[in-house]
TrEMBL record:
Name this protein carries in UniProt: Sulfotransferase
Residues annotated as binding 3'-phosphoadenylyl sulfate: K156, G157, G158, T159, R160, R237, S245, K362, G363, R364, T365, H366
GO molecular function: sulfotransferase activity
Annotated family: Belongs to the sulfotransferase 1 family.
Class of enzymatic activity (EC top level): transferase
Composition-biased stretches (Polar residues): 88-102, 109-137
SUPFAM superfamilies: P-loop containing nucleoside triphosphate hydrolases
Main location: membrane
Disulfide-bonded cysteines: C345-C357
Length: 399
């Protein structure tokens, strides 16, 4: 009954309504699609901008990681060696002006020949050009340089003590072992020798010690060829005491060697000394000094008293520091006299920690020598000692 009473649409009107509904639905879908496209475009631009910022931030982060941080370096002096970080446009570019870097073989008050070292003017990846002739550049930790000072002698004179005492100074970098370059390894070349040295900063002095240089015939010429201005330190000791110490050391390694007087004298009755024995020959200081004076002025050599190094280490090291052009920072506060060894040991000025003494071979008790043999050796060395005093202008009071 209900269906019979409802109005019936003609097919033409029904098609018209269907067309209008389809058209409205299509317009709705079209508008919705346009809205989606507009939103997608805006999101894409925002994402692109964010990616660009992220990439820039990441790049800046990598550049910051490539630049050492101050707390990783531990020293303002070392920080000055680091090239400027190129991570922002606001960072001041490195100066293109050449930096004057003094490369004299001695670092003291009389440096006269500066060498130009050019900093990279633009690209941060470029390395400094024209490094000093005597060093290999490593910006973060300093440079390996040929030594500006060498402890050339003498054996059993106190060379190890001088090296250990002077390396306490913050402006000294010293090689711990003996390289024996100018007497045994010269054919290896200066590059090999330089590579053995510790790294140092511009204001530091590199030092090495090899006591056998003093008695090596070719050492003065070879060292002068490396640098005619290198500073030379010679630690000397009473030649009689030095010979006994030398013999004591050899005896500890070879207990079956002949007695001291058998080696020291050609004829025990006449008292003729055997200068062919190395322990005796080393003590002829005036003889060994002559080749050195042919290549270096006496003012370029400093002679340390092995005896005063024991009784007054601070005073003797003060003179060494003056000779090297260093401020007197190694003082009596650094020394403690070990009565058991009969030798001074190093200690921290503040008193913290145990004193650091030299090795067991230092301060070793000497073998007992016949007093008559000692007296004959003193008579033998006396004229040589006097000549040595006159040459160096210093009386060591060995008589």
């Amino acid at each position: 009954m209900y269906n019979s009473m409802a109005p019936r649409l003609s097919p033409r009107r029904a098609r018209k309504y269907l067309f209008v509904c389809t058209l409205c639905l299509s317009c709705t879908l079209l508008c919705y699609n346009l809205i989606l496209r507009s939103h997608s475009s805006m999101h894409s631009r925002d994402q692109s901008s964010m990616n660009s910022r992220d990439q820039s931030s990441m790049q800046q982060g990598y550049e910051q990681l490539s630049c050492p941080l101050p707390h990783l370096i531990g020293s303002k002096k070392l920080l000055q060696k680091i090239p400027p970080c190129p991570h922002s446009a606001t960072t001041a570019p490195p100066s293109s002006a050449p930096l004057t870097h003094t490369v004299s073989d001695i670092q003291g008050k009389n440096q006269t020949e500066p060498t130009q070292v050019t900093r990279a003017p633009s690209k941060p990846t470029e390395q400094p050009t024209s490094p000093p002739w005597n060093c290999t550049a490593t910006p973060r930790y300093g440079q390996k340089r040929l030594p500006q000072a060498i402890i050339v002698g003498v054996k059993k004179g106190g060379t190890r003590a001088v090296l250990e005492f002077i390396r306490v100074h913050p402006q000294v970098r010293a090689m711990g072992t003996e390289p024996h370059f100018f007497d045994r390894n010269y054919e290896r070349g200066l590059d090999w020798y330089r590579n053995l040295m510790p790294r140092s900063l511009d204001q530091q002095i590199t030092v090495e010690k090899t006591p056998s240089y003093f008695v090596t015939r070719d050492a003065p010429r070879r060292i002068a060829h490396m640098s005619p201005r290198v500073k030379l330190i010679v630690v000397v000791r009473n030649p009689v005491t030095r010979a006994i110490s030398d013999y004591t050391q050899t005896l500890s390694k070879k207990p079956d060697i002949p007695s001291f007087n058998e080696l020291a004298f050609r004829n025990r009755t006449s008292g003729e000394v055997d200068t062919a024995w190395n322990a005796i020959r080393i003590g002829l200081y005036a003889l060994h000094l002559q080749p050195w004076l042919s290549h270096f002025p006496i003012s370029q050599m400093h002679f340390v008293s092995g005896e005063r190094l024991i009784t007054d280490p601070a005073g003797e090291m003060a003179r060494v520091q003056d000779f090297l052009g260093l401020k007197r920072l190694v003082t009596d506060k650094h020394f403690y006299f070990n009565r058991t060894k009969g030798f001074p040991c190093l200690k921290k000025p503040g008193g913290g920690g145990a004193p650091r003494c030299l090795g067991k071979s230092k301060g070793r008790t000497h073998v007992q020598i016949n007093p008559e043999d000692i007296e004959q050796l003193r008579d033998f060395y006396r004229p040589h000692n006097i000549k040595f005093y006159e040459t160096v202008g210093q009386d060591f009071h060995w008589e």
